């Protein structure tokens, strides 16, 4: 049986690191085993879903390299959900209830005050046809609840091991609201059955849902798929990220200049026993992925780690791969230039400043004009890879300056900056003529 997984985001917001991690782990698990990945837009809530968010989800996944093999919109499948609902009604598993939110709230408070668990008391099951008709005549519309069996539902979770949920301690879930809206629970199961999903991989906040959904799979006479519930993301401080996720959208990270492979390597490896290193590709990441490497403790999302992986990704980027991107920012100064500057990049856009050092114009920083003049007098005729060490050797012999006092004024004069790529490699790219002008303090 080949693996088939799905990612089912709601187009009611932007993708953030939390839901992208879910998408990614699904993708890695499937692709690592030659399986397929379904993108299923969970847009049953027509009022809150937008085409712009849907497009954003596709753009973000495509940018990250998470391609999908099949794609669906739940809003186009209402007939399937109706049909399943009718079957559940016919078998007595889906029943109408007429309580208002206030009535339910009042009952919960009474239960709590008596020390009872605040679960739905199933009063609706005792309604006579006449009582139901009276409610309808009053203008009340029913919502529909799934009648749980009230048992220990268990499964072997790929991430958590043996897992159990006692559905006797849960309220019968509402599957259809009074306005006719299908909540996520039933459409998700219907689609997982129709699309032959083999594994449902999602955050551990869904564990309780899984108990109810397994009962729905069974009530619809379908085989129950495998499940994996991943530990949730926490920030560098160990606190849950859920409240801060809104500010960690993928589109913002793209704007901030993060490389997709840095994001996928980070999100794919935190919370696993694999070292936090950048992968060669998202495919390679999939080949090394295994749930057995995932621990039970939360996955720590730390921007400092992401930054490190981002730099690593750039340091490993070949000239061939970098070339179109260099051209796009007008910084394609050849392979040697790329090789000289890439070890210094944190973000790709840093290359623009570095290209300016070579192409100019930059404003030299000269704190000691006499020192610069002496250095100018000692500048070799040919600036090749050996020139820098010969030149600095001569300047040292002449002025007695050494270490930082020797190198920093020369770097500041030649580049206008205190930090940057290796000067020995940079000098031939800048060229003798420009070096001379900069040592004279001219903008060049
Ligand atoms: N749209 C649901 C969510 O984002 C999907 C959950 C699931 O994967 O089953 O929470």
TrEMBL record:
Residues 3-275 form the Glutamyl/glutaminyl-tRNA synthetase class Ib catalytic domain. Gene3D superfamilies: 1.10.10.350, HUPs (3.40.50.620). One of its GO terms (molecular function) is glutamate-tRNA ligase activity. It is found in: Cytoplasm. InterPro entries: aa-tRNA-synth_I_cd-bd, aa-tRNA-synth_I_codon-bd_sub2, aa-tRNA-synth_I_CS, aa_tRNA-synth_I_cd-bd_sf, Glu-tRNA-ligase_bac/mito, Glu/Gln-tRNA-synth, Glu/Gln-tRNA-synth_Ib_cat-dom, GluQ/Sye. Its EC number is 6.1.1.17. A motif ('HIGH' region) lies at residues 9-19. It catalyses: tRNA(Glu) + L-glutamate + ATP = L-glutamyl-tRNA(Glu) + AMP + diphosphate. CDD domains: GluRS_core (cd00808). A motif ('KMSKS' region) lies at residues 240-244. ATP binds at residue 243. Residues 332-440 form the Aminoacyl-tRNA synthetase class I anticodon-binding domain. Catalyzes the attachment of glutamate to tRNA(Glu) in a two-step reaction: glutamate is first activated by ATP to form Glu-AMP and then transferred to the acceptor end of tRNA(Glu). HAMAP family: Glu_tRNA_synth_type1 (MF_00022). PANTHER family: GLUTAMATE--TRNA LIGASE, GLUTAMATE--TRNA LIGASE, MITOCHONDRIAL-RELATED. This is Glutamate--tRNA ligase. It comes from Brevundimonas albigilva.
């Amino acid at each position: 049986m080949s693996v088939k997984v799905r990612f089912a985001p709601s187009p009611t917001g932007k993708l953030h690191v939390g839901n992208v991690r879910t998408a990614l782990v699904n993708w890695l698990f499937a692709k690592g085993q030659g399986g397929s990945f379904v993108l299923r837009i969970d847009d049953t809530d027509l009022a809150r879903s937008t085409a712009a968010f849907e497009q954003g989800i596709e753009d973000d996944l495509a940018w990250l390299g998470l391609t999908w093999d099949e794609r669906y919109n739940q809003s186009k499948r209402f007939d399937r959900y109706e049909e399943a609902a009718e079957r559940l009604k016919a078998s007595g598993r889906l029943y109408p209830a007429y309580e208002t939110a206030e009535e339910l709230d009042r009952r919960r408070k009474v239960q709590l005050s008596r020390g009872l668990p605040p679960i739905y008391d199933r009063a609706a099951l005792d309604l006579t046809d006449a009582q139901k008709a009276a409610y309808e005549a009053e203008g009340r519309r029913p919502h529909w609840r799934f009648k749980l069996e009230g048992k220990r539902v268990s499964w072997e979770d790929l991430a958590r091991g043996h897992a159990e949920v006692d559905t006797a301690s849960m309220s019968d879930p509402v599957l259809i609201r009074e306005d006719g809206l299908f909540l996520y629970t039933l459409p998700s199961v219907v689609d997982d059955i129709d699309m032959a999903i083999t594994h449902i991989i999602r955050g551990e906040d869904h564990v309780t849902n899984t108990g109810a959904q397994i009962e729905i799979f069974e009530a619809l006479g379908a085989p129950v798929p495998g499940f994996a519930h991943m530990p949730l993301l926490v920030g560098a401080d160990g606190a849950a990220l859920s409240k801060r996720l809104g500010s960690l959208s993928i589109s913002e990270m793209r704007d901030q200049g993060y490389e997709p492979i840095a994001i996928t390597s980070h999100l794919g490896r935190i919370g696993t026993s694999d070292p936090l290193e950048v992968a060669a590709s998202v495919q390679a990441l999939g080949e090394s992925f295994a749930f057995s490497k995932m621990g039970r403790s939360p996955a720590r999302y730390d921007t400092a780690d992401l930054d490190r992986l981002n730099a690593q990704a750039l340091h490993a980027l070949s000239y061939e791969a970098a070339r179109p991107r260099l051209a796009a920012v007008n910084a394609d100064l050849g392979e040697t230039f790329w090789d000289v500057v890439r070890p210094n990049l944190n973000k790709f856009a840093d290359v623009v400043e570095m290209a300016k050092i070579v192409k100019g114009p930059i404003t030299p920083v000269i704190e000691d004009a006499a020192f610069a003049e002496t250095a100018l007098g000692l500048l070799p005729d040919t600036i090749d890879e050996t020139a820098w060490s010969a030149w600095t050797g001569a300047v040292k012999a002449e002025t007695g300056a050494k270490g930082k006092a020797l190198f920093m004024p020369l770097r500041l004069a030649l580049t206008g900056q205190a930090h940057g790529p290796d000067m020995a490699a940079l000098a031939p790219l800048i060229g003798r003529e420009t070096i001379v002008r900069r040592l004279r303090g001219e903008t060049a």
